[in-house]
UniProtKB/TrEMBL annotation:
Any single Pfam family the record assigns to this protein: Rrf2
Gene3D superfamilies, alphabetized: Winged helix-like DNA-binding domain superfamily/Winged helix DNA-binding domain
Listed NCBIfam families: rrf2_super
Official protein name in the record: RrF2 family transcriptional regulator
Species of origin: Salinimicrobium flavum
Domain of life: Bacteria
InterPro entries xrefs: Tscrpt_reg_Rrf2, WH-like_DNA-bd_sf, WH_DNA-bd_sf
Length: 143
């Protein structure tokens, strides 16, 4: 349902939300190592998220990425929208071009409630709320 790029972007944003601050910025290389991604690929995702004002960054010896308090209040769906848009989340899981309630694919009615709930979850919960669950040990970024 999420592209690999969106998964990596969500992981990176949550990692930054948990471990970085305006006083303690994190470099792309550290994030890439932590979430096991090639640094050039991750850098491209982080640049996209910076352009979309989800991440903040600064250059120089103490530079890196962080989230402002306002960015932590953004819904997690904003990360996915910045990378893929929401069309991918609404696409047919079997890849059919015309899948809808009026013209359903064989699994449409089994999958649609899950997709709707997933979109709702991402739209109703902030980056910061997910980061807090990681900080409290309720959820994990690394296994």
């Amino acid at each position: 349902m999420l592209s690999s790029s969106s998964k990596y972007a969500v992981n990176a944003v949550l990692y930054i939300a948990v471990y970085a601050s305006e006083d303690k910025k994190i470099r792309a290389g550290e994030i890439a190592e932590a979430i096991k991604l090639p640094s050039p690929f991750l850098s491209k995702l982080l640049q996209t998220l910076s352009r979309e004002n989800i991440l903040s960054s600064s250059k120089g010896p103490k530079g890196g990425f962080y989230l402002t308090p306002e960015a932590k209040e953004l819904a997690l769906i904003e990360v996915v929208k910045s990378i893929d848009g929401v069309d991918r989340l609404e696409d047919c899981v079997l890849g059919l071009k015309k899948c809808s309630s009026e013209q359903p694919c064989p699994v449409h009615f089994a999958v649609q409630p899950f997709k709707n709930r997933f979109l709702q979850e991402l739209a109703e919960n902030s980056i910061g709320s997910y980061a807090e669950k990681v900080k409290k040990g309720e959820t994990y970024l690394f296994v």
